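Pinned message: reference record for DEAD/DEAH box helicase family protein
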Amino acid sequence: MTAIYGMSEDETCRAFVIPALEASGWTSEQIRPQFRINEGRLTPTPKRHAQDDPLIADYVLEYAPDVPVAVVEAKRWRIDANNGVEQARRYAAKLGLSFAYATNGRQIVEIDYSGAAPAIRDVDQFPSPDELWARYLADLQADSDIGRELLKAPYDHTLRNSDNTAKRPRYYQRVAVARTLAAIVRGQKRILLVLATGTGKTMVALQIVAKLNRSGWGEGRKPRVLYLSDRSMLVDDPKDRYFLPVFGPDDVHKISGEPVRGRKIYFALYQALEKGDEEELFRRYQPNYFDLVIVDECHRGSARDNSQWRRVLEHFAPATQIGLTATPINRKDADTLDYFGDPVYTYSLADGIEDGYLAPYRVRRVRLNVDMEGYQTVPGQLDRFGNEIPEGIYGPKDFERVMVILERTEAAAQYVVDYLRSTAEDGKQGKTIVFCENNDHAARMRAALFNAASEEVRSHREYVVRITDADGPHGRAWLDEFRKDDSDEPVIAVTSKLLNTGIDLPAVRNIVLFRRIGSMPEFKQTIGRGTRLCPEIGKGSFDIIDFVEATRLFNDPGFDGPPLRVVRDTADEQGHLLKSQPEAPDGSVADPETVAEPEAEYTQADGGTLDTQRSDAAVDDPDEVDRIRSRGRRYVVNGVQVYKWGERRYQLDTDGRTMRLVTIQQWVHDRVLELDLAPDKLRGRWAVAKTRRELMTILQRADIDAEELPAEFGSPDVDPIDLLLNVAWGLPLVSREERLYRFLHEHRDFLNAFQPQARQVLDEMLLKFAEHGSPQLKPETLAVRPFTDMGSVVELANRFGGAELLHEAIDDLSKRLLEAS
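Predicted structure (tokens):
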């Protein structure tokens, strides 16, 4: 008995847990040990990112390959089995399972969430595979012949990863597939799946179709599937990268022109289906021709009650219809939930970040002075084209739509270029998307970035490009190059809305928001371009640079929950939108200052290019609204002084949803502690020129310029290292003058040990420290005056007996100076 009580967890499992499972009929193929559920949350740090430990279940019981039905959490013999209940519950919830077990080999605790009365109870033995499978099907309300066949049908593993391993669906993708198939078995005709951008909606769609194709679903034949969207790239990418490799060209077809029959999986743009000289193309297919219709990005045009695209879905009403989106919407004229119903499964951005499948982010909110103060015209003022500008104060709602201030774009461009330079790693700047108000604004931003980055453009001619619907095939060619993780150019892609949805861009490290965003779906889609991980280049996080306060939507409770609220639109006599105000359930109107602009409607030409139709915004002066709107004119001015008004730093809070404003002191405090160095070790590394340079680079990547800290903290006479030690650990501040005084009293023997010519060099080094701080204590300083007046660097090194001894002397001086007390 003593030996049993001393068993480890692994020994307990081999001696008792596995035999108990086998006694209930579970085979070794059905018992999956050390089941890795996720990857572990990524957290941005100065060393790029740190990764938490993944969630690993002791055992997952699978009725069929990749079809889990229960979790088993094991504890060693002498530990109470109830100590594993919370772990088992957590793992089961992740895997979408209603059954979990905690055991120590002598006691089995069952956690059962199925049925009307969930329970935690002791059981004598594990249920058999068939018993648990029946309970699993009953819980999903899919206990029928077709349900059993569909849910245990094998997943398709044809697709390969870059290392040629099989591309297997992740745990949440399997949950989404199972929930969808169960809904189909129950006879549900409209099904909604909500999965955050970057989490693989296309993979989910592929596996659903693969399972349906391998079962008896579909009138005794292989089911016919229609995959719909409103952009060419949202159709071509899943067709070419996912479905063609799995099903082959004989079964996959893109509808264009004439109706084609005899295929299994059809892809189509709404626009193509609506064409036809005598009869629209979609009507040339019988309403019951397709068994399944998949609607990608279903929050877009098809969600509108009066959308012409809705007619396509209504024509194929007999088919089961699955809507895929990251951002369901709920407006008075467009309600995703009203059409498709509540989601059968939701996987949010916060979930993806928590699991380590999506990149966490940092936010930098930058405001320009004209955005804060507004731009006021004077009576009779003309724009640069001679147009008289209506008198008034113009603000952010008007910029680039009614009022164009050329310097505003130039100031933002310079900030972006400076930021990319300061955050470059090994000489490579992070790929960046800049979102502008419209194509014209994007063209001016491209020119401003080109001019600001003359240094980069000399070596990389295509450093910055514009990619919009107006750029046609040339823009598409640059998009193909931009999306490559191993390409050095373009570095910056400037767009308006073309890149805000449906495109995989894993290598993007920076999202720049220079267009107003008024809806949560558009916001989520836009920042979704940065959420994908890219291990090939070490990308584990991304940055958002926000010039327009778009990230205020981070603080919306609906960020990962309910869709948008209802809004009330007010139009003028010409039908132009004047304002949008959110309505409470009782019909009352909320504070107009908090109003978000409604999402743009999308139209698309045959070639798949995208246009946006959105009313111009009004100036802040309400007396000028009608006049400017009726003219539909944009005024262009220059000669305006534009500069950075302020900059705030935000961090993702622990809930994974909201952003927390931090002071510069708090920001530096957190970053210094992330270095994981004790105060004496930090001071020691700072004292040596080489390791100080490394530390300064790490801090710079975390948006901390060490040499600027004295000015930022209002302590210009204190050395950066003392400020770092003070803000991180509260160590007392010592001025540079005081440090020098202490050093001269405590280490005079050190200085006197050098020959007079060498001592002269060190004395000048001390003066450099007194004037400019410890970053000057390095051999490179010898290349400036007054050292150049004493001779070349080689000659100065010879005063010490060579370069190596010179470096040692400077580092020794630095150590003694910074440790003086």
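Pinned by admin. Summary line: The chain has five domains: 2-138, 147-355, 361-554, 663-733, 737-819.
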